[in-house]
Amino acid sequence: MAMTAAEISDMIKEALPDAEVTIEDLRGDGDHYAALVVSSAFEDKSRVQQHQMVYDALQGKMGGQLHALALQTALPEAS
Amino acid sequence: MTDNPAITQIKADVEANDVVLFMKGSPMFPQCGFSAAVVQILSQLEVKFKGVDVLADDTVRQGVKEFSNWPTVPQLYVKGEFVGGCDIVREMAESGELEDLFKDKEVATA
């Protein structure tokens, strides 16, 4: 059971409401995605913690239903 | 703290070895592209590491996810500390942070 990009994005946004989520379906197979998540919630967090926050948002789907999600996290650019 | 023997073993491994990579397959024959990518990065830096094949033992495969609250393999540990999975290691390698980390932790590189 694969997930759609919209499902992934919705789950992340539910946990991190200010997040800007960009998802790319790498092979067009609904199974290998790359996600860029930009959120102010990442402030003062280590990279590991930032990724853990996204994985937590996906509620255990990562590594299971969601086979491959290349993840990149970032803070919003200071305007 | 835990009565899960797999987690006790994982803890012992990351404490006994400077650099440990939990991966799918062996460093010589990785069985997953993400594991292979991290092996390649470590090899380029000429860092000696212990590879633990999680496919060889399902309790380790599950245990390592619990150990660092991290859902996927590969997982890289340096001096007992969880550094990250494939994405983080790749990002750190590109920016030079990984080499700095090995220097800071006094792990021999090329």
Q: Please write the string of helix (H) and strand (E) elements of chain B.
A: HEHEHEEHH
CATH C-level of chain A? Alpha Beta
Work out the helix count of chain B.
5
Using the coordinates above, name the CATH class of chain B.
Alpha Beta
Bulk shape of chain A: globular
- Total helices of chain A: the number is 2
Shape, per Cα inertia axes of chain B: globular
Multimeric state: heterodimer
Find the count of extended strands of chain B (DSSP E, 2+ residues): 4
Structural account:
The complex is a heterodimer of chains A (79) and B (110). In chain A, helix 2 links the parallel strand 2 and strand 3. The longest helix of chain A has 11 residues. Chain A has a single domain, classed as GMP Synthetase, Chain A, domain 3. Chain A has a 3-stranded mixed β-sheet with strand order 1-2-3. The model of chain A has no long low-confidence stretch (mean pLDDT 90). By secondary structure, chain A is an alpha+beta fold. By secondary structure, chain B is of the alpha+beta class. In chain B, strands 2-1-3-4 form a 4-stranded mixed β-sheet. The longest helix of chain B has 12 residues. Chain B is globular. Chains A and B meet through helix 2 and strand 3 of A and strand 4 and helix 4 of B.
Summarize the structure.
The complex is a heterodimer of chains A (79) and B (110). With 79 residues, chain A is an alpha+beta fold. Chain A contains 2 helices and 3 strands.
Question: Which SSEs are present, and which pair or pack?
Answer:
The complex is a heterodimer of chains A (79) and B (110).
Chain A: H1 5-15, E1 20-25, E2 32-38, H2 47-57, E3 68-74
Parallel strand pairs in A: 2-3
Antiparallel strand pairs in A: 1-2
Helix pairs in contact in A: 1-2
Chain B: H1 5-16, E1 19-23, H2 33-44, E2 50-53, H3 58-67, E3 75-78, E4 81-84, H4 86-95, H5 97-104
Parallel strand pairs in B: 1-2
Antiparallel strand pairs in B: 1-3, 3-4
